[in-house]
Amino acid sequence: MHRDDDPPQSDETDLGALFLALSHVHRRRVLQCLWEHGTELTLADVAEEVTAQQTETSIQNIEPETVTRTYLSLYHQHIPQLEEADLVSYDQENDLVIATSERETVRSAVDTFLDPTATHSPDG
């Protein structure tokens, strides 16, 4: 529901949410993982993949406590941030993380923003 004192949504707001979502390496790794392995994975599988990338080792060599810490960080902080930017959705009942944006869509939004010939807002 829109309230009168809520700021209007704009492309700039959407880009801000996108860049905030992409600002942390865990969130970028979540997207990369989903795009490489299909559009949906369990959060536990995503946590294992992110931890393996972070530690630069195989999943078999990672302590379960390390994966649990990553899982909790993803669950409480990173997945909600990605949801807010409309990059993923989270099905809590099935513990599934689902990519809602394709890699090319995200890349296109970033490229458009970075294109010096594109029209941007007067203050941007």
From TrEMBL:
<protein>
    <submittedName>
        <fullName>Helix-turn-helix domain-containing protein</fullName>
    </submittedName>
</protein>
<dbReference type="InterPro" id="IPR036388">
    <property type="entry name" value="WH-like_DNA-bd_sf"/>
</dbReference>
<feature type="domain" description="DUF7344">
    <location>
        <begin position="20"/>
        <end position="97"/>
    </location>
</feature>
<dbReference type="InterPro" id="IPR055768">
    <property type="entry name" value="DUF7344"/>
</dbReference>
<dbReference type="Pfam" id="PF24035">
    <property type="entry name" value="DUF7344"/>
</dbReference>
